[in-house]
Specification:
Length: 76
Amino acid sequence: MTTTHHSKVLTQIKDKPGKYAKYKKHNVPKERQSGKTKRPCVRCGRFGGHIRSFSLGLCRQCFRENATELGFKQYS
């Protein structure tokens, strides 16, 4: 089975309980407690360039698009 996504394989071996348990134990990714994958952008789902100030939860691209609607002003 050559696949990178674990859920496809789990559906293929669901009828074999021994193989299912062993595969699930060793290959299903663990739930992260912290880190950048725990905080996606609430608007588009990106993980990088995340702005956490003011509890925004937006990536920098979405913040630039919605800054004036959120009440921020650009000073230059």
